[in-house]
Design a protein that fits this description.
By secondary structure, the protein is of the alpha/beta class. It is built from five helices and eight strands. The chain has a single domain, classed as Spore Coat Polysaccharide Biosynthesis Protein SpsA, Chain A (Alpha-Beta Complex), CATH 3.90.550.10. The strands form two sheets. Strands 4-1-5-7-6-8 form a six-stranded mixed beta sheet, with helices on both faces. The mean pLDDT is 92.
Length: 232
């Protein structure tokens, strides 16, 4: 019997946007959109929110997620890594339920426009490819060939290589991680830095669905997109 765990990491401390994970977005707390998408997929044995916040835990429970623990302080600060959060959550579930977690789907609450359809498609790819991991990506907004660093003088000398000074549509397409979906099997639970290998595949999402809430402007943009989707 396989055990699929949806893991939603939601730390309480947010410096740029206070209480970001429970800030109201289009009528619901931000984290609720991810919990709802995971629930409606019908794919998971458990949808677990890993948080250090009582407020987040209460809201997560209200929307049907499991919050069997409050995350320890040593993996709740600014320096805590996602890998530590994954290991802690999986270890807790396995010990408490005496089961082995076969698949983890990491769903960050800051991707509210990633929906049930995306999660199901990513899992279809996971199974079709017999993958060890599937990671969501989207096209970069602008050709990376037109990007470079600047030094303190702000000089633009050699900012763009001559071979790259062409029309935008002539540049090769590049993709970036969008942070919305990470699916991986037990092989990677102890060290998720290993998920990018020959058994890893990209699930491509459109840029509108890839909005990642980091700044206040992202909230405004996500709200506009959600209203637009509702009206269409």
């Amino acid at each position: 019997m396989t055990y699929k765990l949806a893991l939603i990491p939601a730390r309480g401390g947010s410096k740029r946007i206070p209480d970001k994970n429970i800030k109201i977005l289009n009528g619901k707390p931000l984290i609720a959109w991810t919990i709802i998408a995971a629930k409606e997929s019908g794919l998971f044995d458990e949808i677990l929110v890993s948080t250090d916040s009582e407020k987040i835990a209460t809201i997560a429970n209200d929307y049907g997620a499991s919050v069997p623990f409050l995350r320890p302080s040593q993996i709740s600060g600014d320096t805590a890594t996602t890998a530590e959060v994954v290991r802690h959550a999986v270890s807790y579930i396995e010990n408490a339920n005496r089961i082995s977690v076969d698949t983890v789907c990491l769903l960050q609450p800051t991707s509210p426009l990633r929906n049930t359809h995306h999660i199901k498609e990513a899992f279809d790819l996971y199974h079709d490819k017999d993958a060890k991991s599937v990671i969501s990506v989207c096209k970069v907004e602008h050709p990376i060939q037109l990007c470079n660093q600047l030094n303190d003088t702000l000089s633009m000398n050699d900012f763009i290589l001559k071979k790259n000074n062409i029309r935008s549509q002539e540049h090769n397409e590049y993709y970036r991680l969008n942070g919305a979906i990470y699916i991986f099997d037990a092989l990677h639970i102890d060290d998720i830095s290993t998920i990018y290998d020959e058994n890893s595949y990209a699930y491509i999402m459109d840029r509108k669905s890839s909005v990642d809430i980091d700044e206040e402007e992202d909230f405004l943009y996500a709200e506009i997109l959600m209203q637009s989707n509702k009206n269409n």
